[in-house]
Input
Amino acid sequence: MNEIAIIRRAQEGDMAAFEQIVQTYEKRVIMAAMQVCRNQQDAEDITQDVFVSVYRNIGSFRFEASFYSWIYRITMNMAFNHSRQKKYHEFLTSEENDDHFYAVADDDSTEFSENTDFQTVLDGVLKKLPEKQRTVFIMRYCQHLKIKEIAVILNVGEGTVKKYLFRAQEKLRGLLKPFKNQLFKD
Output
């Protein structure tokens, strides 16, 4: 059975069809939530909330965009709302290794150790980007979405997406410049 038929059945209240939707998209939703919240338990909680919202609102889905784009928009909104609700201090210190990075990132002359990996550095600098720029960067380079898909999901023009992406890339270049020699050794 194709996706449209499954969605239509779920819109009519068919629980088996809805369960198929959950099975199809659950891993992708968890991964998307993890990109924002960086905490497995929070990502799982957000995923549960996303599918509750999908269940309640599936009747409003109009097939104007892809179903995944619709679910992804719900996921991003919930993940960012969740992150905003946490206190800033708790958000920055929730992971064991973040404290070391922030001490390094605030002092451009300090070199980080050999065991600091690129993902740790990237996670830290991404948190320093404004939310819209971080969102677009994550969607493009972590979720591998196309500019057009991002525009649809965020309900903005493609030019706006490109502007946010350009600004994020420029800021990341500046934030990563002090670490260039350590990150990109031969």
